[in-house]
């Protein structure tokens, strides 16, 4: 056995020592997330990154944040020391002429992940989402997923996550930004080695959020038609990416998406009432009310808004040719 520590009557293996250290750290797991959240809210990493020497002391940071608390540098010192112990910062101690220690802190590759990169993306929004009370409160119900077969988020908030996001614009934005930032970082890496989009004509991103995956794909493959398919309250915040194709369609992802939605709607409206697929019509009109808690009104509202924009009426769906002509996006 590999002995790490050996005294007269005690011997502790490396394995024992490591598992004990790990077990002692685990109950503090939440602390790291919360300290990071505070550091981000105080812009600590950005302040260090922007400083001329790329390093700051707790006193220098305290002088740049909006506080009148005289003890701020002392409390900050503890936060910075903790972040250094977790490899988010390195520290450098210098003795001045009076023999006093001055500690300054520098960023590490780990903390640099929390500062926007050249595309403006970072891990920060994802951390803020996970450290948000809405997310944390769901975690209190994890055991209920097993004992009661319930979804923890629904138990904590009385509704499914995406319905909640539709009612809480702050959470909606927090979630979408977190996804957008992660996707931007990941898609860059994926597109460097994945060739599966070569030769594709159209890509529909189901649940595409703010459209970052499509924007990345289309910027590498400009001939692809990209369609972002998501909930209306997500789409309304999605930036419009202009798609310029050399051969085919030119236009905006949003418009093409509306055409696809209306084409499908026209199709189900023309089905015979006894056709099994006619169920889709009810789904379309009832807002995909398939499962418990599924938001009822989104699809109905989306189609109603689309039809209003193009000044369409329900009876137009009956003539396939006219319908297609009215909904088509030219390009
Ligand atoms: C994990 S996120 C995907 C994020 C996205 N791929 C990105 O890169 O940002 C799941 C997405 O599914 C969407 N979503 C949830 N329910 C939906 C539904 N019924 N129809 C369409 N989109 C839905 C959410 O709004 C959310 O944007």
UniProtKB/TrEMBL annotation:
Concerning SUPFAM superfamilies, the annotation shows: S-adenosyl-L-methionine-dependent methyltransferases (SSF53335), Winged helix' DNA-binding domain (SSF46785)
Keyword annotations: Methyltransferase, S-adenosyl-L-methionine, Transferase
Q: Where is the O-methyltransferase C-terminal domain?
A: 141-259
Task: Classify the source by domain of life.
Answer: Eukaryota
Gene3D superfamilies per record: Vaccinia Virus protein VP39 (3.40.50.150), Winged helix-like DNA-binding domain superfamily/Winged helix DNA-binding domain (1.10.10.10)
Source organism per UniProt: Capsicum annuum (Capsicum pepper)
What name does the UniProt record give this protein? Caffeic acid 3-O-methyltransferase
Q: Where is the O-methyltransferase dimerisation domain?
A: 24-115
* PROSITE patterns in the cross-refs: SAM_OMT_II
- The reply to whether Transferase figures as a keyword in the UniProt entry is yes
Would the keyword S-adenosyl-L-methionine turn up in this protein's UniProt record?
A: yes
The UniProt entry's GO biological process terms, in alphabetical order, are:
flavonoid biosynthetic process; methylation
Return one GO MF term: protein dimerization activity
Family assignment from sequence similarity = Belongs to the class I-like SAM-binding methyltransferase superfamily. Cation-independent O-methyltransferase family. COMT subfamily.
